[in-house]
Amino acid sequence: MSGSADRLPRLLALVPYLRSHPGAQVGEVAAVFGLSEKQLIDDLQLVWMCGLPGHTPGDLIDVSWDGGEIIIDNADTIARPLRLGIDEASALLVALRMLAATPELAEVPGDALPRVMAKLERAAGEGAATVSSQVAVDVDAAPDALPRVREALTRKRRLSLRYYVPGRDEVTPREVDPTRVVVVDGRAYLEGWCYRAEAMRLFRLDRMLGVDVLDVPADPPDEAEPIDVTRGVFRPSPTDELVELEVSAAGRWVAEYYPCEQVTELGEGRLRVALRARDQDWILKLALRLGDTGRVVSPPEMAETVRREAERALALYAHRT
Predict the structure, then answer these.
(1) DSSP alpha helices (H): ranges in the chain?
(2) What's the pLDDT at 238?
(3) Partners of 72 in the beta sheet?
(4) What is the pLDDT of residue 135?
(5) Per-residue pLDDT at 15
(6) pLDDT value at position 8?
(7) What Cα–Cα distance (Å) separates residue 41 from each residue in 55, 91, 156?
(8) For residue 9, what pLDDT is reported?
(9) What is the pLDDT at residue 255?
C-alpha cells in the first residue's frame, strides 16, 4: 500500500474526479488511479471521514459505493482539481519540449504539441514558463548521424555503422535495418535489426563513429518486434551476476532507474536492492557514482573491488590537489 505522502495528493485528486464523473464504477475509477479495488475502497473510507471543522454529519463528505457505483456529495470545498506547482509544471514543459525535439516528430505536420505547451504555460503561470525556457533541450548525436539515420528511415534503406561499445572499449562494424528513432532518458537511439547480433538492438546516436546509407532495401525479418523502452534501455539477463546494494534516501533513485529483482525498505529512507549487473565495469561505475549514498553488500568480491577502486581514485585526487 502506498504511503501517506502519495495518498494525500491522490485523495485531493480523487474527490474532484468523482464530482465530475457521477455514478462512476469502482473498477473504472481504480483503473484510472492505478489502484486495486481494495485500495480505492480504503481511500473512499478515509474520504468519508473528511470534511469541515465541526465533524457533524453535515460537515463531512458523504460518499457511498453500494453496488459498485460511487456517489459523492457535500464535497464542494475541495471539488476544484489541484493545480500544478511551478516545479511540476516546469518539469512537464521540459518533457514536452524534449518530445517535440525527437526525430520522429520533427517532420510530423500539425501543431498539437505547441498548443498543449502554450495552454500549460498559461495555466501554470509565468514562473513555470520562465524556468522551463531556461533549460535547453537537444538531441545528443554524433555529426551527420541523425540526418543519415533519418534518410535511411525515409527511404527504407539499410545502414552501415561503425559503433563504439564502451563496455568492451571497441568499435564494431554493424549492418542494421532501421525501424525507428526513440529518446530514452534524454538520449537518442536508433532501433533496428542488427545482422551482427541477429536480433533487434538499440544504438545510441552519439556512439556512432560512422554512418552510411546503403543502396540495399531495409527488410527486417518477421520476428523483428519493437523493443519495449518504457522501463529504460537496460535489460538484464538471468545469467548476469546478482548484486546487492544498500542505498540511503539520496540513493533511492537506483530502484527507480534500473530493473531490480528485489527492493527492501530498511527504514529512514534506506533501501536494499538486488539487481543484475551486465558486467563488473557497469556495477563499478554505478557504485562510484553513488559515493557515500550507497555501498555494494554482495558479492564480497565485488564490494572489495569497489573499495579498492574508490581508494585509488581518492589517492589520485589527493595527489593532484
Answers:
(1) 4-20, 26-32, 37-47, 86-100, 103-106, 112-124, 126-133, 145-155, 253-257, 280-290, 300-320
(2) 72
(3) 63
(4) 55
(5) 82
(6) 72
(7) 21, 31, 52
(8) 75
(9) 85
The x, y and z cell numbers of residue 84, run together, are 500544478
**DSSP letters spanning 240-304:** SEEEEEEE-GGGTHHHHHS-EEEEEEEETTEEEEEEEESSHHHHHHHHHHHGGGEEEEESHHHHH
- How many other β-carbons are positioned within 10 Å of the β-carbon of residue 9? 10
Residue 230 φ then ψ, to 5°: -65, -25
- The C-alpha atoms of residue 309 and residue 147 are separated, in whole angstroms, by 40
C-alpha grid cell for residue 23? 455514478
Pairwise CA distance, residues 266 & 9, whole Å: 25
Q: What is the mean pLDDT of each run of 10 residues along the chain (321 residues)?
A: 61 81 88 87 80 63 84 71 66 70 55 73 64 52 82 94 76 93 82 92 89 94 84 69 91 83 89 85 84 90 89 75 56
Taking a C-beta distance cutoff of 8 angstroms, is the pair 139, 146 a contact?
yes
Can you list the pairs that 144-150 forms with residues at least 24 positions away whose Cβ atoms lie under 8 Å? 144/211, 145/205, 145/206, 145/208, 145/211, 146/103, 146/181, 146/188, 146/205, 148/211, 148/212, 148/213, 149/103, 149/178, 149/181, 149/190, 149/205, 149/211, 150/103, 150/106, 150/181
Residues 6+ apart with CB under 8 A from 141: 188, 205, 206, 208
Phi-psi region of 194 (alpha: psi -120 to 50; beta: other; left: phi over 0): beta
Q: Where are the beta strands (DSSP E) in 140-235?
A: 157-165, 170-184, 187-194, 199-204, 208-217
pLDDT at position 291 is 86
pLDDT (0 to 100) of residue 114 = 74
112 secondary structure, DSSP code: H
Q: 169: left (phi > 0), else alpha (psi -120 to 50), else beta?
A: left
How far is the CA of 55 from the CAs of 12, 52, 59, 76, in angstroms? 19, 7, 6, 16
pLDDT of residue 179: 93
Q: Which residues, in sequence order, are CB contacts of 62 under 8 Å at separation 6+? A: 48, 72, 73, 74, 75
